[in-house]
Each structure stands twice: as structure tokens, then as C-alpha cells.
């Protein structure tokens, strides 16, 4: 499913559902889970995360991928879905961003995006 319009880049809405069994079509505005917009690799990560009951150490053992790499992927996935971990403050200050970068929980690109986003919020 395309999460954004390939022409203008704005979010797309689901407006029609069809049953291929009996050819019934229903039109309207439908809510779609943020999970529907994830790429297959991200969905596989979530499935493994759930199967390991959220235990990153177990995921590390099964996949051979390091804990901090897995933690970074989880952070990126949360950001991609627009979710904040429970207990995180509403606004991350820049020191927190640099701390996450130092611990390799986020990439340099992610850190720059967060700083840019926070700068834009201050200007609004």
C-alpha cells in the first residue's frame, strides 16, 4: 500500500474496499493501521520482536545482530510510525539527542532530522 501520494507526497487515504470472492465493493473513508504502511523488513522485525516477547537480548541471540543495533532499529521504527516510547518526555532536548547518538541508539541522519524538526517547532 502506498502511504504517500507518488505525485505530491501527501498522505493517502483508503476510500474503497472490495471482496474478490463476491465482487462487493464498499466506498467511504477508512482508517488504516500504521502497520499497513511498513515495509516487509520492518514488519518482519516487529513479528520477531513480538515472538521474542519484546526481549532484545533474545532477538540478539536468535539473529546474531547486536543489542544496540536492534535497539537502534526499534527507535527508527518508532520514529517512522510517529510513536514515542512510554515514559519519554514530550519534547526531547538536544542534549538527549546527542546522548542517543553517542550510545548509537540513533544514526547521525536521525539526529539531524530530530534537531531540524525541533528547530522548526520553535519557529512555529
Automatic annotation (TrEMBL):
Stored Pfam families: DUF2089 (PF09862), Zn_ribbon_DUF2089 (PF22747)
Q: Which residues form the DUF2089 domain?
A: 5-36, 38-83
Indicate what this protein is called per its UniProt record.
DUF2089 domain-containing protein
Amino acid at each position: 500500500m502506498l502511504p504517500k501520494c507518488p505525485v505530491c507526497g501527501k498522505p493517502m487515504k483508503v476510500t474503497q474496499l472490495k471482496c474478490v470472492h463476491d465482487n462487493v465493493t464498499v466506498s467511504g473513508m477508512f482508517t488504516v493501521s500504521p502497520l499497513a504502511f511498513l515495509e516487509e523488513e520492518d514488519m518482519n522485525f516487529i513479528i520477531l520482536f513480538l515472538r521474542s516477547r519484546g526481549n532484545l537480548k533474545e532477538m540478539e541471540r536468535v539473529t546474531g545482530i547486536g543489542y544496540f543495533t536492534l535497539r537502534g532499529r526499534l527507535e527508527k521504527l518508532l520514529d517512522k510510525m510517529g510513536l514515542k516510547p512510554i515514559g519519554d518526555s514530550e519534547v526531547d532536548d538536544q542534549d538527549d539527542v546527542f546522548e542517543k547518538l553517542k550510545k548509537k541508539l540513533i544514526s547521525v541522519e536521525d539526529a539531524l532530522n530530530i534537531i531540524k524538526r525541533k528547530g522548526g517547532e520553535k519557529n512555529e
